[in-house]
Design a protein that fits this description.
Elements lengths: L5 H9 L4 H28 L13 H15 L2 H7 L4 H13 L6
Helix pairs in contact: 2-3
Length: 106
Amino acid sequence: GVQTCALPILLLKLAGVPDEAVIADYAATQGYMEKIFAEQRKALLKAGHSIPDHVLASQPEEMARTLSHLTGRYGTVEQYLAGCGLSPTQLCRLRDGWLLAPSAEA
């Protein structure tokens, strides 16, 4: 679910990725994670835990709702991260490091 991908969401938004692309990327996760979600659900049920379907899913509506909340409550990702204690210098370093980091293949 959304709670497992907070850092990638913040990094994508900090890099200027449009909401539509973040939502599409998140929705694509469902296909990649289906087997893992099924295994997690089975283990939780075996341990006697019930879990709502949306927790082990990557529904685009959930991501759209999360991004809407982020924007509505904090304005921008930069404002949210500043509220978490990051300085303007740290935000610039994070954004520049994320955008300008050398690829692993280079």
